[in-house]
Each structure stands twice: as structure tokens, then as C-alpha cells.
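Hi everyone,

Forwarding the result from last night's run.
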Amino acid sequence: MSVANILLQRDSKLDAQGKNDISPLHLACHYDHPNVANLLLEKGASPHLASQNGHTPLHIAARKNQMDIASTLLENGANANAESKAGFTPLHLSAQKGHYDMTNLLIEHGADPNHKSKNGLTALHLCAQEDFIKVASILVKNGANVESETETGYRPIHVAAHFGNLSMIRFLLKHNATIDVKTNQNYTPLHQAAQQGHAHIVSALLEGNASHKARTNDGLTALNIAQKLGYISVMEVLKGLSYDTLAPDNKNWDEKYKVIAPESLQETSFMSDSDDEGGSDALISEQPYRYLTADLMKSLRDDSLPIDVTRDDPIHRQAENFDTDGFNLGRLHFRSFSKFLGGRTRRCYERMQTQRCTYHCATT
């Protein structure tokens, strides 16, 4: 603080932007120095300056749940709906991390709960992914649309089904979400849950009268998907309802194996050296990501579920502490890998280094 005072007395530039267009106020927010942030604002620093990826100081405060700094920024005119390069607002970042008080503060200062990023994500989509019911409640209370669609047609209930979040499924249905709503590829929440091996979600959706007969653009039912991925628990839930045969194979391997997953929120750090919004900053990274490879899916012997094998990088990038812009449909958290593959298929994956997976469907 004393150093900051000395520099300001010597006419240091308040809004000098350095590498990646980072200002002193950005850094004060990032390192949680409220006194320095207050001093800079008192001396006339702009709360509107954006870093290279479009983050304002308020984005950083919202992401890191710095209530005092965020309040001061808003009192000094910070825009609660400021967009990052990929269209994400401070509310997106707050919702993604489950910060209830921060979310409430932003809404009180005019943040739009239905604001969409460039890929169509709203704050409610992000709550659905992380199962943050409390934050979702305040969003819906303030007018968030439970039927908001992403660019590929995913609604919050699809996202909740994909990530196996039963409490969120129930919350959304209670608030009149459509149970059989379809994406651009005609995937319903039931398809999404079956693809991920979430038997408890499949059961809950069926109890809510979800249609087990719905077919994707490729003619797949939820049972078809579960059969070909070997999700036995899902098959047991569905097999009493339908005796579907597998859809005709009229596509080549690459076309059939595309990952059908909702948009997600992974953003370049405002401190990253990369001009690409998918870049990374190793100093403040959190989790590694990888693509599901062709070899992996071949070893699982799945020949019906769409999986994208056009990208086979073993380790592509890392997610940063400000992980919102640059969402990629093919990325997977290592820690969520069992969620993506499902419990039974995960055990196949773990043995894959020494032997080929031998899960088979009776119909294969």
C-alpha cells in the first residue's frame, strides 16, 4: 500500500496497460488487494479497462468471489454486463463457481440473468453443469429462462443430465423445464444421460414421463446408445420399456463417433501469453484436459454413439483460474473422466493399458 502511494505521488499512470493489456487495477483484483484497488479507484483508475481476453476488473472479482472489491467497482460505475471476448459476463463467472452472494450483488446492480455468451451459454447453463441449486434459484427468481438454448440447442436440463446432476434435474422440472426437449441433433435429456451412463438420471427422467422412444438424427434411442457403450445399469432400466434394434449403419466411422456434449465454459486467463482464447497460463492453471481419442473408442468397441475423433491430442491444453472463454465440446476433465465414460466403461478404460476392453452388448 505504501509503495502504491509513493508511485501515485510520482504521477505513475493509473491505467497503464502492460502485457496482455493488464492494468494495475486488474492485478489488485487478481491478488485480492482491496486497499490498493480502492486507492486506484479513488485516484481515478478506470473500472472499465479490459485485458486482452476482454476481462474487466469486475470479471476477476466475480470469479474470485471478492465481495468488497466487487462492491467498490460497482459503486464506481463498473458495468455488470461487460462482455469478455467470448461474450461472458461477470455473472457467468460467478454462477460457474457457485458464488451466491456475488451473484445476488451483480443482479442487484443490473446483471442480466439471460445474457448469452457467443456460444449461447447463460449463467443457468453453468449452474446446471456444476449442480449449484442455490445460485440457480436466485437466477430463476430474477427471471432466468429455464428453456434458454445454446448454439447447438442445449438447454440447462440437457446439461444437468449430461453431468449426472439429479438435484438440478428436479429443480428444473419443478420450474417447468420441458423433459423431452431436443437439441439440434435431436438429443433429449434421456439420450444425454444414457450416453454418459447415468442410470439414476435415466430413472428420474422416466419417472417424469420422458419418452424412451425418442430418436436422434442418427436414429438412435437411449437404449441403442446404452447398448453400444455397454452401460449395463442403464440398459437394465430401459430394457423393460423397449426392444429397439440398433439403428442402421449408414455412416462412416468418423461421422458416427462424434461427441455429443453441451457447450462448456473454459476461458483463457487474462494473464495468458496466448492470443488464442484457448491458450493457457501454466502458473495459474487448474486441471488438464484431453480429447477422447479414436483408439480409445475403438477399444471400447462402440460403433453407434457419436464421438469426435478428429482431434487426437493426448494432452491439448490446461484450464486456467479464469476458465470461461473458448469452450470446446470435445474436452474432458480428467477428474470427471468417469462421469464422461460412465462407471462401468471407466473400469474398461483403466484396464486398457494391458488388455483390450471386452465389454459387449448381447446385440453386438
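Confidence is low (pLDDT under 50) at residues 3-10, 270-364.

Cheers,
N.
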